[in-house]
Design a protein that fits this description.
This protein is an alpha+beta fold and 629 residues long. The protein is 34% helix and 21% strand. The protein has 4 domains: 233 residues, Histidine kinase-like ATPase, C-terminal domain (Heat Shock Protein 90, 2-Layer Sandwich); 135 residues, Ribosomal Protein S5, domain 2; 88 residues, Rossmann fold (3-Layer(aba) Sandwich), CATH 3.40.50; 128 residues, Four Helix Bundle (Hemerythrin (Met), subunit A).
């Protein structure tokens, strides 16, 4: 080997450092292609900046591109660019010194314009090639030079540089892809289809054309059913992301196409939000509200997050930190030039920047949903039927910390309107004498309407919100009030208004109290109390609950694992003006067994009304038979 091709060691603690970088820094092997394409883009950018400072150089963007060529037979992969190229000294400095970035040095020396950003910062991306290659060659000719040089290496043992021939300036990186092993396959890195997919995933928005020779089956000229394989050079990347275009240039179809290309869902997006933020942290974003709930949305397998780009290069496929859980249904993309990335460009070095973006995005989503609610009600209700449950979870979770953000977005079915209404709309219709926002819980609207507890509130002319989701009452307990109006269940002990027809029930006679005490003893361990009802009009009996835990909440919690001891403090309420109560009183003085029989029947009747299981169905049916005989 001549002096000019003497093998040299890397200027670092080479073997250990390079092995660490290859095996530890990058999570996915396929990222090597993103890194090499980014370097190629930087090389073209350097030509652009050189042209800006020299009147002798004309930068025609059409002349600059990146070419990716795979040869399955020889297992080689070539990434070529028409960029600025490198001299022998630059090859020595940039590739012979691990973690020295020529792009970063260039970036510091140059006043960069906003529309062009040098991507490389750390000088390690090039070495990711050794994750998939046994041997790497770099043939480069610097702009303005007649000389070309070949740099080559098989890894940590060192590298050589020698003179070679290259007809035009630019750089070719030639990888000899590793053979397959029992544990690993490297065939994807010489496969046209796989390479194209990797480019689309990570480098679709590199600003220069990435070209490949694409093989296609086409109809042979002059025939009707004969096909032949034709290879054509095609540009495989989109180059300019639509989020960097002016909104006025784009149509709904453009946004839908991006949604479909990114496979954010099989549905159509219900709505989209295009953000261009220019503040302490600059970023562009396109966010989507899906039309339908993903099939796995409420499973552990569902992953929230937005695609995160840095200067058009994909950094994270799903950045969960950009979305709060209650907006986890949002799909989309965020691209920022101001992110501080770690050495592998897969993670952020500091989360302050991400938190600023995330907070802004949260506010933008809230504002967008509020706008839909106010201006496109039908569209918002479609959204709410798909994802309203998630908003309610957001109100309930973290001890109600986010309730102020979400409360205006909630909708509930109204007894008066017979449709979904917001809390603000409910408040706007309240009469002056109404103190509370009333609600009732149940499995369906039809069942709630038939509840005995609803009757008196409805007769007063008050609107009732129907809660049919298992999360509804938990969310309302977290809210407690809305615009200084507290929420009140129709099953609560104090409904907050006087009812003249039931004033007699307020003063329980000694005779009635004796009967109630007798019934309470019969139902010992099942109810906390038996009392006269202030809410019943035509129905004889109902169950209510004292304390924070309602009967509906008990049903939901007891359906969960390890929740056997959860129980609401139930109260059996009797309508003292109903004929049944007169029958009870008649039995109380002379037939204790009949009082027990009627007590059990009324208690089981109240359970059925609430949708609770009867403890002993056989005893219940036998008791009915006793009454019928």
């Amino acid at each position: 080997m001549s002096a000019k091709t003497t093998k040299k060691q890397f200027k670092a603690e080479s073997k250990r450092l390079l092995e660490m970088m290859i095996n530890s820094i990058y999570t996915h092997r396929e990222i090597f292609l993103r890194e090499l394409i980014s370097n190629a883009s930087d090389a073209i950018d350097k030509m652009y900046y050189k042209a800006l400072s020299s009147s002798e150089i004309e930068f025609n963007k059409d002349d600059y591109f990146i070419k990716v060529t795979a040869d399955e037979a020889s297992r080689t992969l070539t990434i070529s660019d028409t960029g600025i190229g490198m001299t022998r000294e630059e090859l020595e400095n940039n590739l012979g010194v691990i973690a020295k970035s020529g792009s970063l040095a260039f970036k510091k020396e140059t006043e960069l314009q906003e529309d062009h950003q040098i991507i490389g910062q750390f000088g390690v991306g090039f070495y990711s090639a050794f994750m998939v290659a046994d041997h790497v060659k770099v043939i480069s000719r610097a702009h303005g030079s007649d000389e070309a040089f070949l740099w080559q290496s098989s890894g940590a043992e060192g590298y050589t540089i020698e003179s070679t021939e290259k007809p035009s300036f630019g750089t070719d990186i030639i990888l000899t892809v590793k053979p397959n092993t029992e544990d690993d396959s490297y065939d994807d890195y010489v496969s046209e289809y796989s390479l194209r997919s990797i480019i689309k995933k990570y480098s679709d928005f590199i600003r220069y054309p990435i070209k490949m020779d694409i093989s296609e089956s086409v109809l042979k000229e002059g025939t009707e059913d004969e096909y032949e394989q034709v290879v054509t050079e095609q540009t495989v990347n989109s180059m300019v992301p639509i989020w960097r275009k002016n909104k006025s240039e784009l149509t709904d179809a453009d946004y839908e196409n991006l949604y479909n290309e990114k496979r954010f869902g099989w549905d159509k997006p219900l709505s989209h939000l295009h953000i261009s933020a220019d503040g302490s942290i600059r970023y562009q974003s396109i966010l989507y509200i899906p039309e339908q709930t993903p099939y796995d949305y409420y499973t552990k397998e569902y992953e929230k997050g937005l695609e995160l780009y840095s200067s058009g290069v994909l950094i994270m496929n799903k950045c969960a930190d950009l979305l709060p859980d209650y907006f986890s249904f949002v799909k989309g993309i965020v691209d920022s030039e101001d992110l501080s990335l770690n050495i592998s460009r897969e993670l952020l070095q500091q989360d302050r920047q991400l938190k600023v973006i995330a907070k802004n995005i949260k506010n933008k989503i809230k504002g967008h949903l509020q706008s839909l609610l106010n201006n496109e009600r039908e569209k918002y209700e479609t959204f709410f039927k798909a994802f309203g449950r998630q908003l309610k979870f957001g109100v309930y979770s973290d001890y109600g910390m986010e309730k102020e953000v979400l409360q205006d977005l909630l909708l509930f079915h109204s007894s008066k309107e017979q449709k979904l209404v917001s809390l603000d709309e409910y408040i706007s219709r309240m009469s002056e004498d109404q103190k509370f926002i009333y609600y009732a819980t149940g499995e369906s609207h039809a069942r709630i309407e038939k509840l005995p507890q609803v009757e008196l509130v409805a007769d007063k002319g008050y609107e009732i919100l129907y809660f049919t989701d298992d999360i509804d009452e938990f969310a309302i307990k977290s809210l407690r009030s809305y615009k200084d109006k507290e929420f009140k269940s129709v099953s609560s002990g104090d409904l907050g208004f006087e009812d003249n027809e039931n004033k007699e029930a307020e003063q329980t006679s000694e005779e009635d109290q004796t009967l109630f005490d007798q019934m309470k003893e019969v139902l010992s361990g099942k109810v906390k109390d038996v009392r006269a009802s202030k809410r019943l009009k035509s129905h004889p009996v109902c169950l209510t609950a004292e304390g924070e835990l309602s009967i509906e909440m008990e049903k939901i919690l007891r359906a969960m694992p390890n929740a056997e001891n959860i129980e609401a403090n139930k109260v059996l309420e009797l309508n003292v003006n109903h004929p049944i109560f007169a029958t009870l009183k008649a039995a109380a003085g002379n037939d204790e067994e009949k009082v027990k029989l009627y007590t059990h029947l009324l208690y089981n009747q109240a359970l059925l009304i609430e949708g609770l299981p009867i403890e002993d169905p056989v005893e219940f049916t036998n008791n009915i038979c006793k009454v019928m005989v």
